[in-house]
Amino acid sequence: MEISGFVALYIFMLAAFTGYEVISKVPVILHTPLMSGSNFVHGIVLVGTMVALGHAQTPLEQAIGFIAVILAAGNAAGGYVVTERMLEMFKSSKDDKGDKA
């Protein structure tokens, strides 16, 4: 089943609008835990972009697919970096107490 360009653009715009509306309703204090808790979604997006790139036929589709894979990989890696930084905030500082003079 082939999706026309108009339908694909419509689906993309609808998804972008829905995503913006959902994220804008989340309080600022919950953005970091929300992002770190959804790292698996970033992985699914990365797999989806690789599958889409595999089905690309024209050079334009391949270029857009390549950019999508790069952005999805950066998004997934960034989610894990944010999680690591957030977990660092909860570690106790027992070593720092003895070093200060």
Automatic annotation (TrEMBL):
Leader sequence segment: none
Q: How does this protein lie in the membrane? A: Multi-pass membrane protein
Compartments annotated for it: namely: Cell inner membrane
> Residue limits of the NAD(P) transhydrogenase alpha subunit C-terminal domain?
9-91
What is the enzyme's class at the highest EC level? translocase
Where does it mainly reside?
membrane
GO CC terms of this entry = plasma membrane
Q: What is its EC number?
A: 7.1.1.1
Pfam families for the chain:
PNTB_4TM
Is the keyword NAD in the record?
yes
Q: Which reaction does it catalyse?
A: NAD(+) + NADPH + H(+)(in) = NADH + NADP(+) + H(+)(out)
TM region(s), chain numbering: 6-28, 40-57, 63-82
GO MF annotations, alphabetized: NADP binding; proton-translocating NAD(P)+ transhydrogenase activity
Matches recorded under InterPro entries = NADP_transhyd_a_C (IPR024605)
Record GO biological process: NADPH regeneration
Keyword check for Flavoprotein: no
Task: List the keywords (alphabetical).
Answer: Cell inner membrane, Cell membrane, Membrane, NAD, NADP, Translocase, Transmembrane, Transmembrane helix
Q: What function does the entry list? A: The transhydrogenation between NADH and NADP is coupled to respiration and ATP hydrolysis and functions as a proton pump across the membrane.
* Database matches in PANTHER family: NAD(P) TRANSHYDROGENASE, PROTON-TRANSLOCATING NAD(P)(+) TRANSHYDROGENASE
Please give the name of this protein.
proton-translocating NAD(P)(+) transhydrogenase
